[in-house]
């Protein structure tokens, strides 16, 4: 099958401001892609364009549909969790389940009930008496129970406690994902998603600055703890970033063979958070 999302020269302007700046990318099926970037870098705008929620410039194809003109057909195959979960205040948990069961042919009621069994939500509870996190829990249970080909999650765990966040990502991987599905996820809590991602896309000032598979991350990038007497030799290999930890320099290298780096100190794979910070340096300058 062709790419699940294919973007060519995608741009989004709000008046004169450029939110997404002429980006091109392809996301195949069976991937879990982390779209990671600082505040205001264009993540939500990119996702909204892909879902046909805002006008944009350039070419976009999502599951073979044109989001500009085929939004209704696209929505049959896509599930979307916005970073602001809004549900009517008067809605009861049980009514929400009945509603989604009535409108969506691929909604699995049993699955939704199973997710809800791990929360404090009960069928008679109204949205207005829920905490912020409980509203998100209800929203996630409803959406995760829909068997969609593409799941777009924009900051899905905002307001959720750490126990539920971990459980959510576990469910996503074990219960939801398979090789026919594709998940695109934005979050600022990269360390919580890095174990489930297959691919990384870093976005900065509306441009994609890094697009790699997690396997490539392991192959390309190495972090080395360099003692003082080896700092000059290490600097000669042009680290892309360095910081100081307990008097030692921690240097990050791109594309330098690991065998060569092992002579300079202890090596390890960088975390996505370290890679992100190194790539984004100067973002707030
Ligand atoms: N409705 C809008 N009207 C005008 N400007 C907007 C609008 N929505 C977003 N922007 C601007 O577009 C840029 C990108 O915003 P976007 O919401 O896509 O960023 P983001 O990466 O999702 O940020 P965050 O991590 O803070 O959610 C920002 O400069 C923002 O101010």
UniProtKB/TrEMBL annotation:
Q: What are the alphabetically sorted keywords of the record? A: ATP-binding, Cell membrane, Membrane, Nucleotide-binding, Transport
User: Which intervals of the chain form a coiled coil?
Assistant: none
Q: Give GO terms: molecular function aspect only.
A: ATP binding; ATP hydrolysis activity
Q: Which InterPro entries match?
A: AAA+_ATPase (IPR003593), ABC_transporter-like_ATP-bd (IPR003439), ABC_Transporter_VariousFunc (IPR051782), P-loop_NTPase (IPR027417)
* Any one Pfam family match given in the protein's UniProt record, by short name: ABC_tran
Per UniProt, residues of the ABC transporter domain are 5-230
Q: Which PANTHER family match?
A: ABC TRANSPORTER ATP-BINDING PROTEIN ALBC-RELATED
Protein name (database record): ABC transporter ATP-binding protein
């Amino acid at each position: 099958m062709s790419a699940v999302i294919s973007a060519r020269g995608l741009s989004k302007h709000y008046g004169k401001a450029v939110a997404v700046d002429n980006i091109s990318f392809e996301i195949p099926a069976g991937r879990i892609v982390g779209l990671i970037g600082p505040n205001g870098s264009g993540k939500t705008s990119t996702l909204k364009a892909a879902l046909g929620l805002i006008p944009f410039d350039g070419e976009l194809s999502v599951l073979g549909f044109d989001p500009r003109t085929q939004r209704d057909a696209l929505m049959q195959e896509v599930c979307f969790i916005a970073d602001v979960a809004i549900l009517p205040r008067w809605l009861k948990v049980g009514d929400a389940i009945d509603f989604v069961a009535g409108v969506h042919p691929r909604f699995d009621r049993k699955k939704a009930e199973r997710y809800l069994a791990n929360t404090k939500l009960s069928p008679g509870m109204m949205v207005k008496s829920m905490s912020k996190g409980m509203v998100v829990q209800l929203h996630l249970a409803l959406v995760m129970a829909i068997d969609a080909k593409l799941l777009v999650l924009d900051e899905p765990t905002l307001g959720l406690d750490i126990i539920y966040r971990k459980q959510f990502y576990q469910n996503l991987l074990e219960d939801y994902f398979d090789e026919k599905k594709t998940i695109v996820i934005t979050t600022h809590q990269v360390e919580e998603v890095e174990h489930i991602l297959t691919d990384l896309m870093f976005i900065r000032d509306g441009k994609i600055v890094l697009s790699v598979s997690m396997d490539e991350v392991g192959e390309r990038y190495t972090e080395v703890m360099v003692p003082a007497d080896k700092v000059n030799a290490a600097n000669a290999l042009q680290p892309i970033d360095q910081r100081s930890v307990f008097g030692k320099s921690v240097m990050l290298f791109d594309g330098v063979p690991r065998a060569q780096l092992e002579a300079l100190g202890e090596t390890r794979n960088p975390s996505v958070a370290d890679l992100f910070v190194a790539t984004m340096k100067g973002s707030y300058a």
